[in-house]
Every structure is written in structure tokens, then in C-alpha cells.
Amino acid sequence: MKSTVYYINKATSIGVEKLIRWACNTDLNSKRAPGGNDVRFGIMLASSMWIVMIVVLVVAIVRDSTLGAALASSKDLVAPTVAATGVLIAVLAFARDKGKIERDRADARSRIMYEQCKQGLESAHNLLKDRNNDRITWIRAARLILNVKHLTQSITTEEYRLAYELAEDDVRARLYEVLSQKTDGPERPALPPAFFFGVKDWETTKYTLDQLAIATSGGVHVQAVSDNHNVREPVSLNLEVNSVKVIMGFLDYPIEYVDRLYQAQWKDLSGWSDSSGPKQGAYRYLNHKKRKYTINGKLFDREPA
């Protein structure tokens, strides 16, 4: 039995040594998510040591009790069993702490990315908020939006992803007001093609598309080169086509967008009153919408649900 205990102690020492080396070599700065292969390996090794020691200890105690022998041999197995148990507890605590470190790091990284993305969208809005049709300005704004879309991939925590969606919705709404025409009524007509061709009098011009293209076309200018004059650069008035696609496309909600407004269940008016409180006018309006609808100036009853 002494030889068996000796080898068990030796195996325990080797296992503990391996675990210590694993813990020392585990990189806490690793970007892998908690529960990676390194943590699983440590838990598996410590658990295996602990299970083996418990089984051996139980077998030794049962054998000694059955044979009526003293428990001295079994007592020799207590120390390595306690050691294996301590190692298992330490590894589990290490895994827990590593997970917390990773979550804290992911949260901090997401916060930084969220702030950068929000600032990028605000900068893009500031470039366009005067409703200019300057080619260079639109290129700058489009690049900002594309960079923001790329950075959002680094926002991994749910809280900051939701916060970014709120910021994006806010800028999208404000850009929609900028990139559409305001009228005295509720309509917001789209900007005409003349705006994107880059003409300054785009609100009043009567040019056709072909006339707009000709009027805003650039050209090649031939001129002599002198020591004290710069060569004239060709100028294009038209907005850069990719920038138009990016910025105007940003006004659309993503396909995967979940509009929580449609989860409000407006037909459920339980607890609302039509004769008191600030909601009575709203109640009558919604209740009428539930019962009636209009088309081309004619009133119809809705079918009961």
C-alpha cells in the first residue's frame, strides 16, 4: 500500500505542477471569450485529479474497513485528496475571475467603440445639416458613416448595442429632415435630381436631366505651365455617386431592424377613459380607429376581430 500511496502522491504533485504551469502561462490579456480551451483544459485536469483521488480514497477506506485493518494507509491518501480538492477550487475560482475580467474588458471596449460611433454619426450630421450639395463634404460624410458601420462590429455587449441603435435612430431621423424638403403640410418631398447634380439653384431650376448633366459637366483645360502659377484642377459639381448611395441609403432602416413601436398593441385600451384625464381625447381617437376606417373620403365599418 505504501508504494501505491507513493505513486498517488507523485501523480498528484505532477498534476499540481502542470496546473501551476498552465495558470502561469494563461494569458489574461487574451481576447478570447471566457470559457475558452485554456480554461476548459484546466478545469478538466483539476476535476480528473479530484475524481481519481476521491475514488482511490473511498476504495482504500472500504478495503481497510472490510479487512478490519487500521486506517493508517487510508490516512496517507487524505493529504493528496485535500490537495486535489484545493486545486480544483482554485481552478474554478480562476475560471470565474478570468470570466469577469473578460466581461469587464468587453464592456470597456464596447463603451469606447460606442462613443466613437456616436461621435462619428454626429460629425456626419454636422457636415450635412445645412443641406449643402458640396461634393467634398458629401464624400467626407459618407466615409464617416462607413467607418462607423465598421466600428459597430466591435460593440459586443448588448447594452451598448442598444445604446448605439438609439443614437443611430436619432441621427437617421435628423438626417431625414435635412435631406428632404419641408413644406407647410405634413409632406416631406424628396430632394430633386438637380440637388445631386450639384447646381446651386436646385430648388428653382427647370432643367431636364440631360441639361443638368451638360451644365454641370467638368472639362479638361489646356494651359501653359509657369513658375509662379498653379495648374488649374478639374472640378466636378456632381455629387460622388458612392457617397450618394451611402448617405441616402443610411436613411433606410436595416432589414433586420426590430421596430418596438409596433409591439405597443394600440387596440388594447384597458384602463383608459373617454371622459376624464389627459388621455380621453386619445382614447376616443384610438377607439374610433378600432371601429372605422376611411378611403377616398368615405367611411367604412371595420370587421369585428
Strand content: under 5%
Largest sheet: 2 strands, antiparallel
What structural class do you assign from the helix and strand content?
mainly alpha
Amino-to-carboxy terminus distance: 82 Å
Total number of beta strands:
2
Number of helices: 10
Shape: flat
Alpha carbon gyration radius: 36 Å
Question: What's the overall average pLDDT, rounded?
Answer: 78
Spatial strand arrangement across the major sheet: 1-2
Uncertain residue segments: 1-11, 26-35
N to C succession of SSEs: HHHHHHHHHHEE
Helix fraction, binned, reads 55-70%
Walk me through the topology.
Layout: H1 2-25, H2 37-67, H3 72-76, H4 78-128, H5 135-151, H6 158-178, H7 193-197, H8 209-215, H9 241-250, H10 280-291, E1 292-295, E2 298-301
Antiparallel strand pairs: 1-2
Helix pairs in contact: 1-2, 1-4, 2-4, 4-5, 4-6, 5-9
What does this structure look like?
Residues 1-11 and 26-35 have low confidence and may be disordered. Strand 1 (292-295) and strand 2 (298-301) form a beta hairpin. The longest helix is centred in the middle third of the chain and has 51 residues, at 78-128. The protein has helices at 2-25, 37-67, 72-76, 78-128, 135-151, 158-178, 193-197, 209-215, 241-250, 280-291, and strands at residues 292-295, 298-301. A two-stranded antiparallel sheet has the order 1-2. Among the domains are: 2-109; 265-301, no CATH class. Helix 2 packs antiparallel against helix 4 and helix 5 crosses helix 9 (241-250). 60% of the residues lie in helices and 3% in strands. With 305 residues, it is mostly helical. It has ten helices and two strands.
